[in-house]
Write a structure and sequence with these properties.
Elements (H helix, E strand, L loop, with lengths): L1 H4 L3 E4 L6 E2 L2 E2 L3 H10 L3 E6 L6 H10 L9 E3 H12 L4 E5 L2 H9 L3 E2 L6 E4 L7 H12 L3 E4 L5 E4 L2 E4 L1 H12 L4 E2 L5 H11 L6 E5 L2 H10 L3 E5 L18 E3 L3 H4 L2
Length: 258
């Protein structure tokens, strides 16, 4: 435990680590307050593209936690950064929530449903056959297919719900084109988190609840990984994977439990 606590900073997933939907998890407040009290650098990475950093900050505030918007980095922001680096001033057809559109606008990537450079898919509650049909048409015309993250499901207070990987699958199947996913396990997000903290990989620990996105991203970024069992992964699931986290905890509260 001391090995983790002595780290200069922490990068943490959110869904399944900090909360399930609108329910904060046990021990989270103690962990965040400990990081603040001990001057630890920290950033929250989320594969969800539904909320802006300001909205995430407000969400935690409603749960009694004060975390500034600058401590969040989302897959929507990572996708916008990636597309801007690939093709500045490009255009996109977007299936997703307002936070994804805003992240793209912030990088001067504008909406186009006629001949876009990219079709971008993120989490959304307004999924429709009409949007899938349009996306398929545009990809077949040459638009590149981008997913904000590959998660098939995401945890909520109601249980597991479909996420981007499930929503983009019909477009992949119908077009025969595989999407490029920017979010975890793609190391791009974790590397950006390191840059935000100003830390080297050996100075931080990465905390996540998913073996297939969080833990593999940490391993591939040469970062010490902490798997928490408060999300979608059980102790029995770990042996199904050909790699292991460095540390396993019931939840982040275990780190600072007296």
């Amino acid at each position: 435990m001391e090995q983790i606590l002595n780290k200069a900073g922490f990068i943490s997933d959110m869904d399944g680590v900090i909360y399930h939907g609108n329910r904060i998890l046990d021990g989270v407040a103690d962990f965040i307050n400990w990081m603040i009290d001990n001057n630890k650098k920290f950033v929250f990475l989320t594969n969800s593209s539904e909320k802006t950093p300001h909205e995430l900050s407000m969400k935690l505030q409603r749960m009694g936690l004060n975390v500034p918007a600058g401590n969040f980095y989302t897959s929507a922001m990572a996708t916008a950064d990636f597309l801007h680096a690939q093709k500045p001033d490009c255009t996109a057809y977007v299936i997703g929530e307002a936070a994804l559109t805003k992240a793209l606008y912030d990088q001067k990537i504008y909406m186009n449903d006629i001949n876009p450079d990219y079709v971008v898919v993120g989490e959304t509650r307004t999924y429709s056959f009409e949007k899938i049909e349009k996306a398929i048409e545009l990809v077949l015309k040459g638009a590149k297919l981008i997913g904000t993250n590959p998660d098939i499901t995401g945890p909520t207070e109601k249980g597991l719900m479909p996420a981007t990987g499930a929503l983009i699958a019909p477009i992949e199947i119908a077009t025969g084109k595989k999407a490029y996913f920017v979010g975890k396990p793609n190391p791009l997000m974790l590397r950006h988190g390191l840059k935000m903290l100003g830390c080297h990989s050996e100075e931080i620990a990465f905390i996540g609840d998913r073996m297939d996105t969080d833990i593999i991203a940490g391993i591939e970024s040469n970062v010490d990984t902490v798997l928490v069992l408060s999300g979608v992964t059980s102790l029995e699931d770990i042996d199904k994977f050909p790699y292991r986290p460095k540390f396993i905890l019931n939840g982040v509260g275990d780190l600072v439990k007296k």
